[in-house]
Amino acid sequence: MWMLAWVLHMPGVHVDAKLAVPALMVPLFLITLCWSRHVAATHRLKAALMGGFVAGLVNLLILGSHIVEQPETTEQMAEQANSFAPNALMTVIGSMVLSLIVAGIAGVLAGVLTKNKTDTTIYTATTWRSRFAWVTALTYLPLIAVGGAVTSTDSGLAVPDAVTSYGAVSVLFPLQLMAEPRIFLEHSHRLFGTLAGLTTLVLMIRVLMGEPRKLPKMLAIVLFVAVSLQGYMGIIRVAEQSTFFAIIHGVFAQLVLAWALGTAIVLSDAWTNAAPSEETVAAAKRTRKMMLLTVIALLLQLVLGAVTRHLHSGHGMMAHMGFAFVVLMLVIIGGSLVMRTGKTDASGRAIRPFGALLHGLVVLQVTLGFAVIGMGWSSEEPTELHTHENLNSAPPIEASSLVTTAHHLIGALVLAAAVGALVWAIRLAIRPKAL
Asked: Does the pLDDT at position 61 exceed 70?
């Protein structure tokens, strides 16, 4: 719903609320319909309504932009910041009620569709925790994508204050002022950060309260600390206008995504129930070594790419391009070993998709890298970032920034897939009797 809202409210798109609101209800309806089937019939409607309530509650974080006064310029924010519009309360109530109705209808329909069916799987509490871990990891993707767009368009300082937005509480920043593209990118990046922090906090609480194993608890705690640290570095980057923290902030974001994926894997039923054979264990040990080397190479390539992006370093670009061939070779070999491990027997099946994913993503990543160069990458000294003081005179955002952002996002996915393969290789290399 958040990702759809982001697209519908982009500058130049900005779909009217009469169309945007029904559109936002579509994913709520479909996901509730899909997942309600896996809840026991006696609790299905209750679970659907609870889902609708939570969705409506979380969506208040983006609804806040609609329910405040809408000044024409940022200069007017000094007087109108955090001022609610007259219809704010009714809008909030209407949004919550609509979410409840849509989710409730989906829950009832799910019951009708699964009636008299005996093949519908009812998820356990462990499975729901695993599902939410995957949801948490997925909330990092739009955060990284929009963060990449912020860097590609030099929008990192479009909002001058580090914690608030032109004096407004972040979730109450007026939609009217987001018509400026760079303000839209920087502010929406902060909102996605809020969503990622919220899901991470809930995941940690759920794991600590319901998970008996120590490893998932440790992973969830570290993930929350990492996300908190990432948010703090984002604040410092803006407050001090620090290029160093911009580089660290960009690199660390991809590490957090990879850690979240690993956490989701460890929480999965497949991880818990894995019983690798001797053949799978032997294959996984070989894969583990190669994937560890691949992950290290990807981390080095990530740092080179971040330095190149933020400093426009010609030397950094040459190193990034040259090392890309080494990374490509390692990913291809590692991905092949991953798929071979997945073919040994049924116990290794869970690792196999990561091999295919690595091969597909790395080809796309290399293609995008050549596209970035072909579209005129320059090693000239970077111009000053566009701030609130010169946004009116800033040049239009170029189409090449979309390609650069895609290259950034796919790079994050390649690293996450490699870490996922490594985590599975470590698990499958352990004999069942040793657990």
From this structure: yes
Per residue in 209-234, pLDDT tens?
999 999 999 999 999 999 999 999 99
- What crossing angle do the helices spanning 278-311 and 400-428 adopt, rounded to 10°? 150
- 68-78 burial: b if 16+ Cβ within 10 Å, else e: bbebeebebbe
pLDDT of residue 239: 85
Question: Which residues make Cβ contacts (< 8 Å) with residue 390, sequence separation at least 6?
Answer: none
Give the sign of the dihedral formed by CA 312, CA 318, CA 321, CA 327. Answer: negative
Residue 13 structure tokens: 């798109």
Residue 297 — left, alpha, or beta (φ > 0 → left; ψ -120 to 50 → alpha)?
A: alpha
Q: What angle, 0 to 180 degrees and rounded to 10, lies between the N-to-C axes of helices 278-311 and 243-267?
A: 160
391-399, long-range: CB within 8 Å, 24+ apart, which pairs? 391/158, 391/180, 391/182, 391/183, 394/182, 397/153, 397/181, 397/182, 399/375
180 CB-near residues (< 8 Å, 6+ apart): 11, 158, 391
Q: Residue 382: is its pLDDT beyond 70?
A: no
Other beta carbons less than 10 A from residue 322's beta carbon: 10
Distance of alpha carbon 189 from alpha carbon 184, whole angstroms:
8
> What pLDDT, on the 0 to 100 scale, is given for residue 312?
78
CB contact at 8 A, 48 and 107: yes
Angle between helix 400-428 and 352-374 (nearest 10): 160
> What are the backbone angles phi and psi of residue 14, rounded to the nearest 5°?
35, 75
Is it the case that residue 435 has pLDDT exceeding 60? no
Residue 182 to residue 180: CA distance in whole angstroms = 6
Residue with tokens 């703090």: 232
- Taking the alpha carbons at both ends of the chain, their separation in whole angstroms is 41
Question: How far, in Å, CA of 264 to CA of 259, rounded?
Answer: 9
Spatial neighbors of 350 by CB under 8 A, at least 6 apart, are 268, 270, 271, 274, 342, 424
In this prediction the pTM is 0.92
